[in-house]
User: Fold this.
Amino acid sequence: MQRTHRVNGTGLGLRRTHLGPLLDHIPDEIDFFEVAPENWLGVGGRIGDAFARISAERPLLCHGLLLNLGGPDPLDRAFIERIKGFLGQHRAVIYGDHLSFCAAGGQLYELLPIPFTGEAVRHVASRIREVQDRLGQRIAVENPSYYVRLADELDESTFINAVLEEADCELLIDINNIHVNSVNHGYDAKAFLASLPGERIAYAHIAGHHQDSDGLIVDTHGTPIIEPVWDLLDFAYQRFGAFPTLLERDENIPPLAELLPELRRIHKAQQHHANSGDGLAA
Assistant:
């Protein structure tokens, strides 16, 4: 039986370059939007008004950048309170951040990897629980892309599953990140995906990436999605059901109309798996 989600269908990361076209008309292909709240806190004037109008027309999801769940510094409680106010003001239905760290003695403005150890599981899970207590809601944490392993006490899947269980939080499953990591670190992407707890999936990301000449894949969100990533999304729907899925495009952002074919492809895959009754998640 498929899980009931708080949003449905296909989403798009809301970028300022698309505010004008979206004020004129929000395409039917877009069922929800996502933003990094840090980019919109305190924004007023015409841009703030445009954001408020657009976000009132579709469900809004918030995926943060600066929560620093894996970092050594104390959580920024004042920042969490600002986030709580933003979520309430814009009626955001989901909030979360990355399973990474971005501050140590000050902001580093990079999403850096966490060592896959039991100690790190306990550290991150305790911080997630504190954030959830302060917000009064579960958060959705994203499986990150990473380019170096800091420890091998646990494999990536075991680490993520342990954090989700100990923190009792949700999962933002990033399909492209699974592909990127599977190539860069040499593991089976489908086996990894199948090991994740489908009942904790809040929604998904899918995006494109850049491949260096030496074979390294860099998670840029700056190109169209490639076929192996589409295939992995199809496998995920078959395994877990057609969960809500958001298209990310953060670099080389094209006109809105050029993103619609990818949104339609997501929707078509969702419809196919919904009609076929795929999905093991309850």
